[in-house]
Amino acid sequence: MGSSTTQDRKSAKREAIIQAAAAVFAERGFAGATVAGIAASADVGKGTVYEYFDSKEDIFLAVFELLMGQLAEDLATQHPGGSAVEQLRVFSEAFVAWINHTSEAYSLTLEFWAAAGTSPMRDRLMAAFRQGYLQYREFIADILHQGQEHGEIRPDVDVEAVATALVGMWDALGLQAWMFTDLDVEGVNRGFLDAMLTGLIPQA
Predict the structure, then answer these.
(1) pLDDT for the residue numbered 27
(2) How many other C-beta atoms can be found within 10 angstroms of the C-beta atom of residue 119?
(3) Residue 115 half-sphere exposure toward CB, CA atoms < 13 A
(4) Cα separation values, 43 from 25, 31, 118, 127, 171, Å
(5) When comparing pLDDT for 104 and 1, which is higher?
(6) 3-state DSSP helix/strand/coil percent for the chain, to nearest 5?
(7) Cβ 61 vs Cβ 121: under 8 Å
(8) Do residue 46 and residue 65 come from a single domain?
(9) Phi (first) and psi of residue 180, to 5 degrees
(10) Which domain of life is it from (predicted)?
């Protein structure tokens, strides 16, 4: 029991450092952030940070993996049942809720993209981005395939193309929500989904 408690404390400490680092990276960017600043934000000593991470790059990657994991977990809990249309609406609402929840920290997402393009962390970040996008696209494609099997979605629809476009729309919507703080994200999402579904549903 003692070993388990110690491990729990270590896990909690590590997550607290990651959460503090996320705020520091969002405010100062990767280049402007320092391990000392992250330690101060987490209310721990600099040496404590190095007990859990080898470098600032390792902390940055841990923040990225945590945020991607949180999104995947949030979306994975969406199993509403019902028709394909109903499932798409629930999933899209969950995605938009995540966008609203994280819009203030979207500058951190831009830091991830910048690092994925040019930094030594490129390969690990790109691999994680690809895995995330593929997971979301496959989830949507599965819903659409089920809809085709039940006659709810036109049989000639390219479900992989639609799934890719939907994920791309939500991704871009997150960027615009960050740039335009008064944007009605729910309304835009609902309007786009309604228009798209009009073309997917078989006509009577």
Answers:
(1) 87
(2) 15
(3) 25
(4) 16, 21, 31, 32, 34
(5) 104
(6) 80, 0, 20
(7) yes
(8) no
(9) -115, 95
(10) Bacteria
Q: How far apart are CA 25 and CA 147, in angstroms?
A: 42
Summarised one tens digit per residue, pLDDT across range 24-61 is 998 888 889 999 999 999 999 999 999 999 999 899 98
How far apart are the C-alpha atoms of 112 and 114, rounded to whole Å?
5
pLDDT in tens, 58-77: 999 899 888 877 777 776 67
CATH number at residue 153: 1.10.357.10
Q: Are residues 49 and 68 in the same domain?
A: no
pTM: 0.78
**Range(s) of the domain holding residue 110:** 60-200
Tokens 């979605």 belong to which residue?
Answer: 153
Number of folded domains in the chain?
2
